[in-house]
């Protein structure tokens, strides 16, 4: 029996998802043993199981990898979600700042920090990949690291001073190092069941995804201020494929 999941990504991320000569699409299909059909005109994507699909989470994993690319991550980082220890979390900034474009720009700037310093510190301290795209901040990392990064971002959004956030990040970094040492001595816990629960509770974002992504695209097209702080990702190795696959 063929199982199929559907999702939609921003049209300007379709070319990256396909990759040059279909390279990224092919990698996704090989890694997850699924079949992808991508409409380059609309951004609609279907993910279907195949006769080779042997992982019950394969479609979910493919979906998360594609969503990560759609939220601004480089494909190499998105494909790391093949690892059961890693998850994707997407934070909708409008939940914190409302619909004000000025507030959105200001808070995105604070999360990025001057010269990208704040984002880089979060990445280095917590070993979490961070993408700021449209109206979202997206995170890829281990579950506990993601929780810490989210707490730091929420501190920023709630008005905490940068040095207070840095102090929190340093404290969490020390905690992770202690846990890493404990795991070396006592072994590593099995996180697969936690990952399954996370993948199975994606309803809130999924229900609003089409409208949400379109809003993000519209905002980026109409608001030059947002473009000033938007993360720039080099796409020299990728090209948009004009025809529906």
UniProtKB/TrEMBL annotation:
Keywords, alphabetical: RNA-binding
The record's CDD domains line, in alphabetical order, gives: KH-I_Dim2p_like_rpt1, KH-I_Dim2p_like_rpt2
Signal sequence span is none
| InterPro entries in the cross-refs | KH_dom, KH_dom_type_1_sf, KH_domain_protein_archaea, KH_PNO1_2nd, KRR1-like_KH1
At the top level of its lineage, which domain of life is listed? Archaea
State the name under which the record lists this protein: KH domain protein
A Pfam family annotated for this UniProt entry: KH_PNO1_2nd
- Give the GO molecular function terms: RNA binding
The K Homology domain is annotated at 1-71, 91-158
């Amino acid at each position: 029996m063929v199982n199929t999941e559907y999702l939609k990504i921003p049209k300007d991320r379709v070319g990256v998802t396909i990759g040059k000569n279909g390279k990224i699409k092919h990698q996704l299909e090989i890694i997850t043993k699924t079949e992808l059909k991508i409409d380059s005109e609309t951004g609609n994507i279907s993910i279907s199981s195949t006769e080779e699909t042997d992982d019950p989470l394969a479609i979910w994993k493919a979906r998360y990898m594609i969503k990560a690319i759609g939220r601004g991550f480089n494909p190499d980082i998105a494909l790391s979600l093949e690892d059961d220890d890693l998850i994707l979390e997407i934070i909708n900034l409008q939940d914190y700042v409302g619909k004000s474009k000025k507030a959105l720009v200001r808070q995105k700037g604070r999360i990025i920090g001057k010269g990208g310093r704040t984002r880089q510190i979060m990445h280095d301290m917590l070993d979490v990949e961070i993408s700021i795209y449209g109206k979202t901040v997206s995170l890829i990392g281990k579950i506990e690291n993601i929780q810490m990064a989210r707490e730091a971002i929420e501190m920023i959004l709630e008005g905490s001073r940068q040095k207070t956030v840095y102090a929190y990040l340093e404290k969490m970094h020390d905690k992770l190092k202690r846990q890493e040492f404990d795991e070396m001595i006592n072994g590593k816990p099995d996180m697969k069941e936690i990952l399954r629960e996370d993948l199975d509770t994606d309803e809130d974002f999924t229900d609003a995804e089409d409208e949400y992504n379109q809003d993000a695209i519209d905002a980026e097209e109409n608001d030059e201020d947002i473009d000033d702080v938007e993360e720039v990702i080099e796409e020299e190795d990728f090209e948009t494929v004009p025809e529906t696959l």
